[in-house]
Amino acid sequence: MSLWNDFNDAQSNSNVIPKGTLAKVRLTLRPGGFDDPTQGWTGGYAKRGSTGSVYLDAEYTVLEGLYAKRKIWSLIGLYSPKGPDWANMGRSLVRGILNSSRGISDKDNSPEAQARRRISGFADLDGLEFVARIDIGQDTNGEDKNEIKSAVMPDHGDYALICGGQASGSASPSFAQPAHQDAYEAQAPTIQGRPSWAD
Q1: Residue 180 — left, alpha, or beta (φ > 0 → left; ψ -120 to 50 → alpha)?
Q2: What is the pLDDT of residues 43-87, one digit of tens each?
Q3: Which DSSP state fits 178?
Q4: Which helix (H) or strand (E) is 91 found in, with range?
């Protein structure tokens, strides 16, 4: 029986999803009102920060499994006055999201695959569902927070199992257990808060 004067054995209240967890998520873009048609940034989706950086304000909702309905917030880099790194990471993430959501192998460079990696605008990303690998980073206060650094491709051994979890109505074990590292992942920008070189 637990004592009410000793809380060492009380359950931790950590709200962080374990590092390496794979989860099917839905991407929602929160409009930022900044457009630059010369860059292809239209529809009011991009946001411009006070330092001049431009990004997409993304929200990922876990769709099923042990962490269903949990949310992770992110910035997908479009431009940084410090250089191309943040934008390149953002482009890499979007490529991974498209591969994952549309069932394209990252190695597939056929004309059909290339066509499916193109979008007509940011609106095409809003609402996409894909398999993400959840990581852990730190916020500006040094507290642990979840972030998404990669999208899981169809080449991954657990991809089909996770995508099929919703149809079968049962949670895949991959939702609750960290998975092994995989070669077919697209690296992506830090979630929740900009990296220093984005400013």
Answers
A1: beta
A2: 999 999 999 999 999 999 999 989 999 999 988 999 999 999 999
A3: B
A4: helix 85-102
C-beta separation of 77 from 90 below 8 A: yes
Per-residue model confidence as pLDDT tens digits over 135-186: 888 888 888 999 888 899 998 988 988 887 533 223 333 333 333 333 333 4
Q: Which of 18, 17, 24, 19 is nearest to 165 (CA)?
A: 24
- In the numeric block, the tokens 């946001």 are attached to 47
Rg (CA), the chain: 18
First and final C-alpha spacing in the chain: 52
Cα separation, 199 vs 182, whole angstroms: 31
Amino acid identity, residue 133? Answer: R
pTM: 0.76
Contact by Cβ (8 Å): 76, 132: no
DSSP string over 100-118: HHHT--TT--SHHHHHHT-
Mean pLDDT, the chain, whole residue set = 82
Phi/psi of residue 88, each to 5°? -65, -40
- Could you tell me if 142 and 45 are in contact, meaning their C-beta atoms sit under 8 angstroms apart? no
- Give, in order, the Cα–Cα distances in Å from 49 to each of 9, 54, 126: 44, 6, 21
Cβ contact 128:107 at 8 Å: no
